């Protein structure tokens, strides 16, 4: 998967699911790693 596309998906998910600065970063990292495992 393209890193830019992967970053956009992870960023969108983190914005929707994250509950603050630290939570958003954690959600972003989790989604990023999950998308990396899928490809």
Describe this structure in words.
The protein has helices spanning 3-17, 21-38. It is elongated and about 30 Å long. Helix 1 crosses helix 2 (21-38). By secondary structure, it is mostly helical.
Quick rundown:
With 39 residues, the chain is an all-alpha fold.
Give the uncertain stretches in residue-range form: none
Please report the number of helical segments.
2
Task: Report Rg.
Answer: 9 Å
Give the percentage of residues in beta strands.
Answer: under 5%
Main beta sheet strand tally, sense and closure = none
The separation of the N and C termini measures 6 Å
Structure summary, number of beta strands: 0
What's the rounded overall pLDDT mean?
Answer: 86
Q: Return the string of H and E elements.
A: HH
Shape: elongated
Alpha-beta classification: mainly alpha
- Supply the number of structural domains: 1
Give the proportion of residues in helices. over 70%
Keywords: Membrane, Transmembrane, Transmembrane helix
Transmembrane segments: 17-35
What is the element layout, followed by pairings?
Elements: H1 3-17, H2 21-38
Helix pairs in contact: 1-2
Any descriptors?
transmembrane helix, 39 residues, single chain, mainly alpha, membrane, 0% strand, transmembrane
